[in-house]
Each structure stands twice: as C-alpha cells, then as structure tokens.
Amino acid sequence: MNTYTRTHLAFSMLLSIAGLSLPLGAQAADRMAGKMDTDGDGKVSAAEHAVAAKAMFERMDADKDGYVTAAEMDASHAAMKKDGQATDSPMSSADKIKAVDRDGDGKISATEHEAGSKSMFGKMDGDMDGYVTAAEMEAGHKATMGGKK
Ligand SMILES: [Ca+2]
Ligand SMILES: [Ca+2]
Ligand SMILES: [Ca+2]
Fold this sequence. Notes:
The chain is mainly alpha-helical. It has helices at residues 3-18, 25-36, 46-60, 70-82, 93-100, 110-124, 134-144; strands spanning 43-45, 67-68, 108-109, 131-133.
C-alpha cells in the first residue's frame, strides 16, 4: 500500500468514524469540527473526539449487540444521506470495517472503534498539540483529495 492510499484510507475512515462522509471544503470541515467541539473553544480535543466517536458507534450499532457490521454501517450511512448529512463514499462499508477490524471477525467492536478513532485523531492533529482544528481537518481533506474542493 503506498502512502497516498494509506492516508486516503485513514482519512476516509476518520470521516466514517466521525459520522460524516466526505466533507466538501472548509464549510463542511467547520461544521464537522463545530459539532464535536462541545466546550466551544474552537478546536476538537482528543476527549471531545472520543465522545463523538462513541456516540457515532452507538448510533451505527442498530441492534445494540456491541458490534457494528457492514449492514449496520450501510443502513446508518443511507439514513444520513437521506438527511443530507452524508454523500456517497468512495469506500464500501466492508472496506472501512477492514481498516479497523483487528481481530478479523468482519465487524467492529467498541474497542476496535475506539482504537481506530484514536489513531485517526493523531493523524489529523497536524501540529501534534492534542487538538484538531477545523483548519487541520480541512488540510487533511485537501491532502487526501489532491487539493480539489
Ligand atoms: Ca473543544
Ligand atoms: Ca450491531
Ligand atoms: Ca472485529
């Protein structure tokens, strides 16, 4: 896997974990950061990100068995698309699951999801200060999407 593919994969996964699919440009990055920024300091801390990731996991786990399957991810994504909160994703749910499925059982456990979202946060945090700003989210988007808006 080359660096571009890996970064792209990681970023797409972050979006799926954050509950939003492919934000388009600065406005979407702002909205995404704003949603997670619960204390309103203009940046998303690791703790705020973890809370948002956990909420998203619980939202996707429709049957509440503690695992998110590809079918559950598809259903959740379809619902968000209907609400206009998401657009078509270049990755299938199965591929997104594969990226974080450490034990290879084909579904994401809460632990796997938490580990995956932590590592995504680290990748987004460009200056490594423990916070991800909207600008960093946008920069991540630009880097992975080849600068296209
Ligand atoms: Ca904050
Ligand atoms: Ca489930
Ligand atoms: Ca698993």
